[in-house]
Amino acid sequence: MNDIRGSYDTVAADYHEILKDNLKDNPYDRAALNLFAELVPAGPVGDLGCGPGRITTYLAGLGLDAFGIDLSPEMVALARSTYPELRFSVGTLFELELKDDELAGALAWYSLVHTPRSDLPAVFAELHRVVQPGGYLLHAFKVGDGVHHLSNAYGHDLDLDVYWYDPADITGLLSDAGFTEVATLTHAPLDYEKQPQAYVLVRKA
Length: 205
Hints:
Blueprint: H1 2-19, H2 27-39, E1 44-48, H3 54-61, E2 65-70, H4 73-82, E3 87-90, E4 103-109, H5 120-130, E5 131-142, E6 147-153, E7 156-163, H6 167-176, E8 179-187, E9 197-204
Parallel strand pairs: 1-2, 1-4, 2-3, 4-5
Antiparallel strand pairs: 5-9, 6-7, 8-9
């Protein structure tokens, strides 16, 4: 986890500069986020693994009471300076400093791409803990199988593993954690992507 934190501390400024306007070019991202925003009940919504806050502010613009949590202090500092009207804090999805059933909705937007499958049940259980009954979780991830090494990204040398997942496998793990599938969307790679992407929307009964 320290490697992940250190890597994203290093790339924070360039990551933000490269991706800050990315939603304008990705209708699939917007469709998934808009559906989530339409279905989620009133209440706080956590963008968990928020990075520099670009998705958090998008959700806020859709009328949600959105706030962000990220592992990287540099990402959080950048989010706070860029979007001072929103709340951001440092934390980990494995042990969220949130009460049981606190969130109306939770977003794990590519924030588990460095998490091996063996660790996903623990994360999904933690997400289930903090989402209220009737609340929603939207999880976005890269489609495929196996682990892929990332040695350079956002203009920096890195040393990170990236995990690709089968949507059916992810849906099964979320079901095991107590969620019910609402919708799954997959799409072929866009021009700047190397593999298909998926969005799984689930609800806590």
